[in-house]
Amino acid sequence: MTFVVIIGLYTTNNLQAKPTIVYTDEDYERLNAVIHHVENVLKYGHIYNEDTKLLPDAINTLTGEPAMWVFPNRAKVPYSNLANQQNFFRTLVALSQVTGSQKYKLEAMASLGEFMLNYQNPNGLMYWGGHRVINLDTLEVQSTESDNGPHELKNMLPFYELMLEVNEEATLKFIKQLWTAHFEWDTADLNRHGSYSTAFNTNVFGQNIIPDIIQFDSDGLPIIPDDSPGKLPFVNSATDLAYAAFTLSDYTGDPAPKIWAEYLMKQYYLASNPNTKMTVYQYKSTLVTKSPQECAIPTYTNSGCGDRVARQFRDFGLIARESNVQWKNTQAIYVDNILMLLEAANKYNIDYFVDWAKDYIEGYLDYTYIRINGKNMIIPMFNDGTVVYGYTTPEAGYYGPSNMRIGYVEMPTTYLLPILRTILSIEENSEKEKLWNYFREITETFGLGDVGPLGGTAPNLNLETAIDDPFAMMTMIELYNDTLVLDYLEVARTIGNNIVKERYHRGFFVESEIMLYSRLDQPETLALLILDGVIRGISSNDMPYYLADSGYIHGYLLADDGVTEDRSYSHRYIYNKTIYDWE
Amino acid sequence: MNRHFIFLLVLFLVGFSLTSCDKGDITTTTTINQSTTTINTGPSESEIYQLLIETEKLSGMSNFNGVLISESLDLGLPTEYKGVIITYSSRNQDIINNQGIVTLPNSCWIESRKQDGITAVPNLNDNWPVVVDVTMEFMGQIRTAKLMFLVAPEIGFSCNKYLG
Known about the structure:
heterodimer, A: alpha+beta, 4-stranded antiparallel β-sheet, 3-stranded antiparallel β-sheet, 17 strands, B: alpha+beta, Immunoglobulin-like, 5-stranded mixed β-sheet, two-stranded antiparallel ribbon, 7 strands
């Protein structure tokens, strides 16, 4: 058996031919679970209101009904928010690829087509994102924030390839207006909130590039301006803007959007700490616009009172700024943004994005990555390396209550992909070595076994791993694609089987057996289909690509006590419900 | 011709055994006798890696993780485990040096005040977190780790360095 494998590897590595893979019953069972999930989502999603092709964001796996947003006035709204369904559209396209049946892709196109035709504001913005939904009872647009909730995308990274195929004009107009509504060309202020009242600008991207926002002090350290009037340039919004602009340039051939996207990403790079290389969540702090009386209340965390970390963590002095925090929102910084940078680097040949990605993730791991009790953890700190571990907050604030002790933060498996993709994007082996060693330590600690020395061609993997995680599975698939070592594929299959066993219940993929809702944006089905495609000989590069699953809704709702009004997120009030919460 | 055949056979067997080790066999030393040829390959890369993992878990380097250290002492950090050389680099050598000797600081970690910048909250953040970077090395192969120590200031410490 070993002999056969050796010959097989010799052959593949030298002739660049992929090994022959037998499609097994277990492979089919995984695909079958995905098909059943998709068919159930389509069936129950369409049954609720047969007058529309729009689908709900999530389905109650006990009743088949859409998830409901319950407003403070007790109005229950079944909601559809297509920004939160992008992975389902990718799943539908991938399912058509592996089955050869176009019906799934046509479903995606029908839903997107209806949406883009009917739910695009005349100014170009779509009615989707953090604060706008479509009420599946009335098919009217509804705001969850106030009467006029803004446009907001944070790492939603729409499936633009499909949108362009469905409605080119609407897609191009949206991408242009995304910048007009969120970005100010003369100051580089970036507002995560965009107004539906902002007029469409025919000269979008026509401005000259302005000087860099970030300047440096005499020590060479970046100066983070605190002149942004309530407009916080969060990297998660910037990631969406940059991704859209790169797509636009690629599609139209106009270089201007790409140049602005590079400018925008450069501000984050310049704001990074030059010594540690750890980067930032935002390149500006907010201007104080509220009165001292209002801001004297610690729990009033409106950004008009200035930088919220500077307020709650002022004991640390000047380093205590929202931009410099390395224990919260790090998924947006070190996962979603890096995946986008690498995607842009590979697609549009922006080599220095790979260098930046390497600097960011390597610096972050150098300073913060620690193993505690056999788990991958992050030491909380600011981006100059100032440790915050063990700090107890004197008062309440944006980051939590008073007397809150800051502890380690668990590193999720989502970090595997940006680390691996960075390594695979670096050309020189000598430049890869350090990051590979981290990758090796992290994968081993996650229970995947040993990927072996640099290159990964001699792994000693845990073929019976208990991990049931789509990010770990995609990591194994990408390692297989790079090395053609069959063990990676076998581990991916094992993880895939675990995912079906642990997360496929009542005909739907859910986070675990007891969770009530199946979210359309979950990444499991797309990951399983990428695996299926690879087994069939379809390169994962030719399939819809995983970039993020950050969809959410934010706004006012009725708290679980049935009385109190709260302002919160769908993940905290809806997708945390179990089957035992359902009456 | 015959000599060529034996040479190729030896090459094949060596390659075969090396690949087998990489696949996780537990043999640490492979010796092949071909009348006059003896080859000792030593532990495989994978076995060394497992030894480095074992070092991190069993050498005792992590004994003080999460423990509040409130006296000056020698942590007794191991510098060798089954041939693995362990070295330490402290990020605050005034408190814990690279040999693991603890010197209690004479000041608090952070002076804390409420958000008004005036009202003191004494003794809230006295204990210092100290990160120590660890390098484990065996036969040129390296694994890194970090240790986190919490160190209390000495009795009678000062706390008058507000940064806010």
